[in-house]
Amino acid sequence: MSKTRNLAQAALGLVLLTAGAGHLTTQREEFQAQVPSWVPLDPDFVVLASGLVELGLGAALLSTWKQPTRGRLGKLAAAFFIGVFPGNIAQYTERKDGFGLDTDRKRALRLLGQPALVAWALAATRES
Q1: What is the pTM of this model?
Q2: Once rounded to an integer, what is the mean pLDDT over residues 22-29?
Q3: What does DSSP assign to residue 41?
Q4: Cα 92 versus chain centre, distance
Q5: What is the structure's pLDDT at 128?
Q6: Could you tell me which of 128, 107, 109, 126 has the C-alpha nearest to residue 9?
Q7: Is the dihedral angle over the CA atoms 98, 41, 50, 88 positive or is it negative?
Q8: Which of 66, 93, 120, 124 has the most CB atoms around it within 10 Å of its CB?
Q9: Distance CA 45, CA 43 (A)
Q10: Contact (Cβ atoms closer than 8 angstroms) between residue 80 and residue 53
């Protein structure tokens, strides 16, 4: 295992723990802006549920270092990032403000971050 890959995995775990905590506390309303209007669930429920998933993924990333479980975890985190991507798209198409994304340009630029998260999760947890 490379030290860089270990550091990248730990950093992603911390990012997910931070985001998950935000879902459950101070950033709850901001995250609700990313719940698509077409989702047939209460936006607050979606935010709370996704926050719990982020906390679980973050904790797992900080405690899982052996293959093949590590690689599977990276794929699961990547799948989660893909799964929530419609929320980012909805924030753009529905022109919802949140996290300072108050223009179409800012919301469009945010869309570029999601593929980066997918790549991060896969690269940080892949086998050497």
Answers
A1: 0.93
A2: 95
A3: S
A4: 17
A5: 73
A6: 126
A7: negative
A8: 124
A9: 5
A10: yes
What is d(CA 42, CA 20) in angstroms, rounded to the nearest whole number?
18
Can you tell me the distance from the alpha carbon of 125 to that of 102, in angstroms, rounded to the nearest whole number? Answer: 34
**DSSP label of 52:** H
Instruction: Give the DSSP H/E element, type plus range, for residue 7.
Output: helix 3-24
Q: How far is CA 85 from the centre of its chain?
A: 9
Structure tokens at 92: 């753009």
What is the distance between the terminal CA atoms of the chain, rounded to a whole angstrom?
6
Residue with tokens 């709370």: 48
- 């926050």: which residue's tokens? 51
**Each residue's pLDDT tens digit, 81-126:** 999 999 999 999 999 998 889 999 999 999 999 999 999 999 999 9
What is the identity of the amino acid at 84? Answer: V
**Nearest by Cα to 1 from 69, 75, 67:** 67
Reported as a single tens digit per residue, the pLDDT across 87-98 is 999 999 999 998
- Mean pLDDT, the chain, as a whole number? 94
